[in-house]
Amino acid sequence: MKMYLISDNIDTQVGMRLAGIGGCVAHSPEHIESEIKKAISDPELGILILTEKAGAAVKDYLNNLKLTMHTPLII
Q1: Is 49:5 a contact under the CB 8 Å cutoff?
Q2: By the 8 A CB rule, do 12 and 5 touch?
Q3: In terms of C-beta density within 10 A (0-12 exposed, 13-18 middle, 19 or more buried), how is residue 64 classed?
Q4: What's the number of CA atoms in the CB half-sphere (13 Å) around residue 53?
Q5: Virtual CA dihedral for 36, 38, 40, 43, nearest 10 degrees?
Q6: Burial level of 1, CB count in 10 A (0-12/13-18/19+)?
Q7: What is the pLDDT of residue 73?
Q8: pLDDT computed for residue 70 by the predictor
Q9: Burial of 30 (0-12, 13-18, 19+ CB in 10 A)
């Protein structure tokens, strides 16, 4: 099981990388959505971590994703 971080802050991403968690830095809602799509397509992904600001930027997309996914999505 892997974890993946989508952050709006490079410091958060570097700190999580030091803890062994991969991730990316995304600022625009379009980039955040594309990173979410890429992350959830990985069958080994167990936990997707989003910073508060990144999650707020794509709130409607996340709500729709929670309702339509067949596997549990906890963000």
Answers
A1: yes
A2: yes
A3: exposed
A4: 9
A5: -160
A6: exposed
A7: 62
A8: 74
A9: exposed
